[in-house]
Amino acid sequence: MQQVIFQQDIDHAMSYEQYKDLIDTLLSEHKTTGSNQSEGLVKYTELNRQRMRKWDKTIVLKPELVAKLQNYTTPMIWVVLTEAWCGDAAQNIPAIAKMASINPNISLRIVLRDQNPLIMDAYLTGTSRSIPKLIALKKDTLEELGTWGPRPVEVQKFVMDFKYNPDTMTQEQMYEKVHAWYANDKTQLIQQEFINLLNLWQA
User: Fold this and answer.
1) Coil, strand, or helix at residue 30?
2) What is the rounded CA–CA span in Å between residue 28 and residue 89?
3) 3-state helix, strand, coil in the chain (%, to 5)
4) pLDDT higher than threshold 60 for residue 203
5) What are phi and psi of 129, to 5 degrees?
């Protein structure tokens, strides 16, 4: 793949704390990220901020994952494409941030999807600009090591099944099913997926 993420993109990206601060600032103005400032998306953003606070306080990483993260020696950058109104992002980025915090060799940088269409369009899910999307890069060369996203595999199956069989439930019912799954799973599947990915990404 032709390189689409450059050092200037990394330099202009946000840390996890800066991302949360941005969301808080926008919500204080009754806004969200992106060009669509509908009442519905602002409401989703308010709910997502609550989800992020909950996960920040409650996520416990698997000992196997912590050990892999601590022993990871390849300096890398995790670039995550997201938007504040995205429910899947709120359910997954806190776990990603927790993982990145374990090892100083891992730098988490967050970029907004709608402000970075060239990057997003290089990492589509099928034909969809689905988020969150994580791209792991070697820090020194920005060579791509791999990707994750937009959801743990079981959730992605729910969403794709609904996409191809939309008469089985309403979109609201699908969202409820997805977020109930996240609440029950407690980040266990994304953690297992990253255990597997770290084995592949170690250069």
Assistant:
1) coil
2) 20
3) 55, 15, 30
4) no
5) -85, 55
